[in-house]
Structure formats: C-alpha cells, structure tokens
Amino acid sequence: ETVKVPFGTKFLDAAFCFPAAVHKDVHTAVVLTHGAGGDMNFTHLVSLARALASHGFLCLRFTCKGLNLPYRIKAYSAVWDYLKTLQKFTVKHTFLGGRSMGCRAAAALARQLRDESEDAVQGVICLSFPLHPPGQTHTHRQRSEDLRMLPEGVRVLFVSGTEDNMCDRQGGSHGLTVKGRSEESVMEEVNSKVINWI
C-alpha cells in the first residue's frame, strides 16, 4: 500500500508491506530507506520488505532524495512520527534500517530517539553501511559516531560485502553482488539473516 508521509510542507513517498493475514497482533515494525541513489523501490529493499511481511512483520519503506545527511535524518524522523500514529496496529518493537546512506540516517535517528525513550528502537539494520568514503579508511571514526553512541540495549546488524570499498574488508561489493551467484540468491540469504536476527 503506497502512502504519502507529511514532511514539512511536502510529502514523502512511502509504501507498506503488510503481513498476509492483517490483524492487530502485528507488534513488530521495520522502517527502511535507500542509499544516496535510487529510491524505496531499490530491488534489495523491496525483496527484504516482502520477506519481512511474509514472516509477520510490518515494513514501511520510504524515498528521500536529499543527499544531505541532516535532511535525511529529518525525513526519517517524519516517517517515525507517521508510524507512531497508525491505529490499526499495536507496534511494540521497532527496527530502523536502510541501505548505505539510508542506514547512516537510521543510526543517527536511533541515537536521537534515546532521549525520547531508552527502548524506542530495538535495533538498527545496516545494509552496506558506508563506514568511510571509498578507500579512505582513516575517516571511519566520524561516520561510526552515531553507532558508537547508541544506547547499550540497541542491537545493530551489519550486512556488508567482503569487497565493499566503503567498509574496509577484503566476496561481495558495496552493492552486495557476489561473483558467481545470482542477485536473487544473495538477497534470499540477506533476507534470511535479517529475519533471524530480528
């Protein structure tokens, strides 16, 4: 179901993936957003959203085209506020996540929300977290600050390719492509890891 999320004087495009049997017993929600390029219809996000819904989780993904991180965080906060106003579900557990720049915004918002409540967010899902610009491994402390400042109880899942040049590892690329494997098989593995972790 596509929706428009109020964001200042604008609206953000967003989409829900609901569990097949929609009932009030859905207690866990996952919010996802894309990286610097693309939108909420990025293949990996759609695949993960559908997999989450098929396992009984509510998933809300959204598009924010801004490349400015503070702007992205504000957009993510608007989506968070929108999710809290939903009446048809009793959401008790929320996980924030995204891909690349999207998971940087998710981690930053989770850090900000600790002032609202220690258990506002149960975890952060980081798909291809860009720990540093390509090849600039010395800059990792700045980008990891939000992760290091998360409340102790907030769990973090990292899914990164071993050849990701933004995560200083030696596998898979930043786009999670693996030589000799289909994109679908890689996504199935990633989806399974995320669902088991939640």
TrEMBL record:
<feature type="domain" description="KANL3/Tex30 alpha/beta hydrolase-like">
    <location>
        <begin position="28"/>
        <end position="170"/>
    </location>
</feature>
<dbReference type="InterPro" id="IPR026555">
    <property type="entry name" value="NSL3/Tex30"/>
</dbReference>
<dbReference type="InterPro" id="IPR046879">
    <property type="entry name" value="KANL3/Tex30_Abhydrolase"/>
</dbReference>
<dbReference type="InterPro" id="IPR029058">
    <property type="entry name" value="AB_hydrolase_fold"/>
</dbReference>
<protein>
    <submittedName>
        <fullName>Testis expressed 30</fullName>
    </submittedName>
</protein>
<dbReference type="Pfam" id="PF20408">
    <property type="entry name" value="Abhydrolase_11"/>
</dbReference>
